Amino acid sequence: MSTPRASTPDSAADRSAAERRTAESAAEPATPCLTNTEIANQLYVGEATVKTHVSRVLLKLGLRDRVQAVVFAYECDLVTPGDGPFA
């Protein structure tokens, strides 16, 4: 049995400011595929903190992994095709 997934960005309202910044860094179209270490360096926090924030965001949105987070971002028009560096 799978966990129901959130269907709108509004369901992410429970995220903390730090979780939001981490998720935005992870999903930034201009810098795709950032590692936890790169996000930590960018936000001046520890890698463990990034892992915690990413995990909490995925849990709160009912997502299994970062791939589902990317799909979620496209489905909710948080990002659009052509925004990234490969456009």
Please tell me about this protein's structure.
The chain is mainly alpha-helical and 87 residues long. 51% of the residues lie in helices and 0% in strands. The protein contains four helices and no strands. The protein has helices at residues 17-27, 36-43, 47-61, 66-75. Helix 1 crosses helix 2, helix 1 packs across helix 3 and helix 2 (36-43) packs across helix 3. The N and C termini lie far apart (38 Å).
State the separation between the terminal residues, measured CA to CA. 38 Å
What about the largest sheet?
Answer: none
- Shape by Cα distribution: globular
Strand tally = 0
Helix content: 40-55%
Order of helices and strands: HHHH
Oligomeric assembly: single chain
Number of helices: 4
Average pLDDT for all residues: 75
User: In percent, how much strand structure appears in the residues?
Assistant: under 5%
| Coarse structural class | mainly alpha
Q: What is the CA-atom radius of gyration, in angstroms?
A: 13 Å
Low-pLDDT segments: none
Task: Give a concise summary.
This protein has 87 residues and is mainly alpha-helical.
Key terms for this structure?
single chain, 87 residues, mainly alpha, globular
